[in-house]
Amino acid sequence: MTRIRSIPRTAAGVVAALLVAALAGCGGGDATANSAEIVYITDAPIGQNQFLQLGRTGTEEAAKTLGTAARTYESTDEQSRRSNLEAAVARRPAAIVLITYEFNDLVTEFADKYPDQQFALVDSCPKHIPANLRCGTFAEYEPSYLLGVEAGLLGRSGHVGTVAARDSAFFHRWSDAFAQGARSVNPQLTDTQLFVGGDNAVGDPARSKELALTAIQSGVDQVYGVTGGGNGGVFEAAAQNHVLAYGVDVNQCPQAPGVIVDNAIKRVDKVVLDLLTAIHQGAPGGTSTVFGLAQDGSTVTSLGPDAAASGCAVLQHPEVLARVRQVRDDIVAGRITIPHATN
Description:
Oligomer: single chain
Number of strands: 12
Keywords: Cell membrane, Lipoprotein, Membrane, Signal
Organism: Nocardia aurantia
Helix content: 25-40%
CATH class of the largest domain: Alpha Beta
Domain ABC transporter substrate-binding protein PnrA-like: 41-297
Number of domains: 2
CATH architecture of the largest domain: 3-Layer(aba) Sandwich
Subcellular location: Cell membrane
Structural class: alpha/beta
GO cellular component, one term: plasma membrane
Shape: globular
């Protein structure tokens, strides 16, 4: 199988150990069940989507350590997501790992229909959580607020902007928090939020670039890209117009050195590990756990262990980093509360 960047060895080893211990309890004990197999299903083609790649990496590393197979089913639309889920449950694996809000309705339907199958959903959770489903979500508004602090301190025009995938509560957790963080250091600052929309909201670099250019033309000199695979368009627009940009999910700074200041990071590997730990320990399912700054599930690249090698532009501003560390500590301690939309 093709390997991409691995999760830390220690995390992969623990994942493997947990799955081995959980095998007897998964798959109903049927000799035909692939109780050691893990199936990972994406909501869209992986392509250059680093977030989806990260989900596949965790699955493949766990399977490699176990000496068994891992399967990845890439979806393209609603129908292919359903078809992939049908194919996965037919294999009766130890676990089916799903990723993003696109699976909210489908995972409820399939978990109810197949109560002996274990499911994990990363980055979202339905309102009704079946007993055989465990969700791991992120407090994306916390690192987004920190990025806003950076934008407020680094900005010259007093005008920041966000280009996000959809005008929904979920994406406002990024865009609103970014503006709030910027205003915390510059109360007079103004904010522009634009949304891609359409059938390819998280994978349309051309539309993302068009909207970023619109924001820049309105006076924005700090632009936050929350469009998944479309962020390349945001960064291209920023580079062409000598403004600064911010990324999401993984370290995107190498895509545009000197342009991308920092990123709001989601620790997908940690979420998967914690969900599997709950299964191994026999903890009740039907749960949703939020991973924020305090849980080291959500963070920013500049505060991570690999910050020095990240290539992020904020590293050239130690005074800004000092302020971000203090705000991070205040959020963790509960001294700063960030209003946010619910999913």
